[in-house]
Amino acid sequence: MTSRAGFVALIGEPNAGKSTLTNRMVGAKVSIVTHKVQTTRARIRGVALEGDSQLVFVDTPGLFRPRRRLDRAMVAAAWGGAADADIIVLLVEAHRGVTEGVERILEGLEDIGKGRKIALAINKIDKVKSDVLLGLSKKLNDSFPFVETFMISAEKGHGAEHLKTWLANELPEGPWLYPEDQIADLPMRMIAAEMTREKLTLRLHQELPYQLTVETENWEERKDGSARIDQLVYVMRDGHKGIVLGNKGETIKAVSKAARLELEEFLGRRVHLFIQVKVRPNWLEEKERYSEMGLDFRDGNK
């Protein structure tokens, strides 16, 4: 049989389930998943195999109305990921329907959709009745010429295999783009930083996570097969540092333990994780921070 390979961009509003679907398709946790919106900052690529096809998932940041430089860079990354893909899948939450945000995305798809296969995946189908689903599907297909529509639950797995099989058959013919055993093209240092940032996001006050970033400063392979990882958490104010550290350092200890355990499971070996918290008031305006997140600093000007 002929091999196939290509890029699949998952786009949608924040929290539509893009990261959850990426992780389910790949079969491993490569994309940060939290209940808070706007947690995926860079275009994380997960690599999945289906028969003779290699699917490279571009998990884009959620598309929303940008207000700050970081927001603008994230939205530019999302549309850039879609524009580079062979197939685009728009995820829409079944219970939220056609929101103002979905309408804006449909307008954007008009601009980049020419000559590209764009499918619709209605996610979280377990949250609504079937007649609501059918009505939503009709409304969306009346407003945009999707080549295919899928009803899925990324979290529970319903319909995900059907979507994966369809994608595998629709990709262009050609050699695989990555080695068979590779599941993500992000450097491990960035994946490690994302895991720690996820744990911080889950634990901390709602507003704070978007004002911090995590970088892996040092990664040392040890002779006993373990790895020592040193990370920095940048926050904007002294008060934020206190929140991240917690009473007697309890919060950062708990975050460090949770991130270390997940890293050990991901890597299949022991990890020694050391996290420092530093105040850096202007990190949102520093080019280097964007490079570490895999974003283009210049896109924040647009």
What does this entry look like structurally?
The structure is a single chain. The protein has about 300 residues and is α/β, with parallel strands linked by helices. Helix content is about 35%, strand content about 25%. The chain contains nine helices and nine strands. Helix 6 packs across helix 8 (about 250-265). The radius of gyration is 20 Å and the shape is globular.
What are the salient characteristics of this protein?
single chain, 302 residues, alpha/beta, Rossmann fold, GMP Synthetase, Chain A, domain 3, 2 domains, 6-stranded mixed β-sheet, 3-stranded mixed β-sheet, 9 helices, 37% helix, globular
How are the SSEs placed, and which strands pair?
Layout: E1 4-12, H1 18-26, E2 44-50, E3 53-59, H2 69-83, E4 87-93, H3 100-112, E5 117-123, H4 130-143, E6 149-151, H5 160-170, H6 188-203, E7 212-221, E8 227-235, H7 238-245, H8 250-267, E9 271-279, H9 287-293
Parallel strand pairs: 1-3, 1-4, 4-5, 5-6, 8-9
Antiparallel strand pairs: 2-3, 7-8
Compact summary:
The chain contains 9 helices and 9 strands.
Main structural class: alpha/beta
Q: Report the end-to-end length measured between terminal Cα atoms.
A: 45 Å
Mean pLDDT: 80
The shape is globular
For the biggest β-sheet, the strand order reads 2-3-1-4-5-6
Tally of helical segments: 9
Q: Please give the largest β-sheet.
A: 6 strands, mixed
Instruction: Provide the gyration radius in Å.
Output: 20 Å
CATH architecture of the largest domain, by name, is: 3-Layer(aba) Sandwich
Number of strands: 9
Share of β-strand residues: 15-25%
